[in-house]
Amino acid sequence: MTILHRSPRRLPRRLVALAGAALLGLTLTACGDDAEEVTVGLITKQEENAFWVTMREVAEDTAEEENVELLTATGTSDTDVQSQVAALESMTGAGAVGILIAPTDSTELVPAIERAREAGVIVIAVDTPVEPESAVDALFATDNFRAGELIGRYASAEAAERGFEPRVALLDLAPGIRSGELRREGFLQGFGIAPGGPPPASVDTEGDRDLARAGMERLLAADPGINVVYTVNEPAAFGAIEALEAAGRDLDDVIVVSVDGGCEAIKNGVRPGTIDATAQQYPQNMAREGVEAVARAARGGEAPAEYLDTGVQLITGDPAPGVESRDVAYGVRNCWGD
């Protein structure tokens, strides 16, 4: 078992083991306040991606401000379903009044979520929708279709500006994860690739840098002339860039677009131009609004319901004609939270 690292701002009040979940951490934090203390859970996907680390850290900070005892758990990858099932069960048993979860599978987790709700727990999906959407109380997330559409429109306009005959490759997430599917669908529409036509070449990456590099290598072996690369997130984008460079491609002849807008990617990808544009999303907003919403509901306020759009902005250092965007300075100022 691996216990999640704690923020250096505080020490854990106590540690609780989650039985049967490999590499799954569960920790608790709280602070004094006049409001009645309530217990809230946060289940993310893994700790290798700064997106999820930031979400956890902001949830911890918000919990301190709101007099919330926070349980946090994570798994080993973006597809680790069983760890999330175990976390839902453990947090429910530990008395959580609400749980925020970023589902690693939009359908497989539904039975476990429904069991938690039947026990009286408020469940909010963060970042990733479930199917059916009614399986959770609410969704706090980026409009993932819009994020994909923005980078699709950008890539199409930029290809036209450069005079490219587009040869598109898709570095997707994994089957069954609705956030990745929505980004892909949005990209295809934004780029102008009609449904029902021949699909672009694609690989699943699980949002992992190494898997993305290996997948990009396979795509380049099949088509060395790929010149537009959609990546589901920025770790995948950096993996794709490594493969392109290893293949001797001039990155000025390739358009790479992505989703997340993390600090590292803005500074080390978008600013130098290796990532041409990214759709910036805001996990800080998801975590903060989610913890606050559950705490309000537990204290007699209105229960969270339906969908909260936590925002998205296209960030690029090279604006494309007809596509609204913000510059790198904006992206650095707002990375992970607007």
From TrEMBL:
<dbReference type="InterPro" id="IPR025997">
    <property type="entry name" value="SBP_2_dom"/>
</dbReference>
<protein>
    <submittedName>
        <fullName>Substrate-binding domain-containing protein</fullName>
    </submittedName>
</protein>
<feature type="signal peptide">
    <location>
        <begin position="1"/>
        <end position="32"/>
    </location>
</feature>
<keyword id="KW-0732">Signal</keyword>
<dbReference type="InterPro" id="IPR028082">
    <property type="entry name" value="Peripla_BP_I"/>
</dbReference>
<dbReference type="Pfam" id="PF13407">
    <property type="entry name" value="Peripla_BP_4"/>
</dbReference>
<feature type="domain" description="Periplasmic binding protein">
    <location>
        <begin position="40"/>
        <end position="301"/>
    </location>
</feature>
<comment type="similarity">
    <text>Belongs to the bacterial solute-binding protein 2 family.</text>
</comment>
